[in-house]
Specification:
The chain is about 0% helix and about 60% strand. The chain has no helices and 11 strands. It starts with a strand and ends with a strand.
Length: about 120
């Protein structure tokens, strides 16, 4: 069984920084993609940043230049450094992975971690 466990998040003032990390564990043969999505109250879940193996990171336009994603493939972890945070970044952030556990690749999600940016 695969689990994505997130850490980080919390409350920060506008202009501040936060760090989110996520570790994938369990019976994992290969990870194709790891990244982060977020969902604000009353809105749909949206992509924040993802890293597909062999490709450059992909960022939402709203976070480009402020957020940085990185992966440690040896540890099956993904890190999101969030700088210059804005109130509109407030949301529940979900770790995401597209990985193979068994025969096929499937999508997996973490439980979510709250990020609140006060003005």
């Amino acid at each position: 069984q695969v689990q994505l466990v997130e850490s980080g998040g919390g409350l920060v003032q506008a202009g501040g920084s936060l760090r989110l990390s996520c570790e994938a564990s369990g019976s994992i043969f290969s990870i194709n993609t790891m990244g982060w999505y977020r969902q604000a109250p009353g809105k749909q879940r949206e992509l924040v940043a993802v890293m597909v193996s062999g490709f450059r990171p992909n960022y939402a336009d709203s976070v480009k230049g402020r957020f940085t994603i990185s992966r440690d493939n040896a540890k099956n972890t993904v890190l999101l450094i969030m700088n210059s945070l804005k109130p509109e970044d407030t949301a529940v952030y979900y770790c995401y992975a597209h990985l193979r556990s068994g025969t096929y690749y499937n999508d997996y999600w973490g439980q979510g971690t709250q990020v609140t940016v006060s003005s």
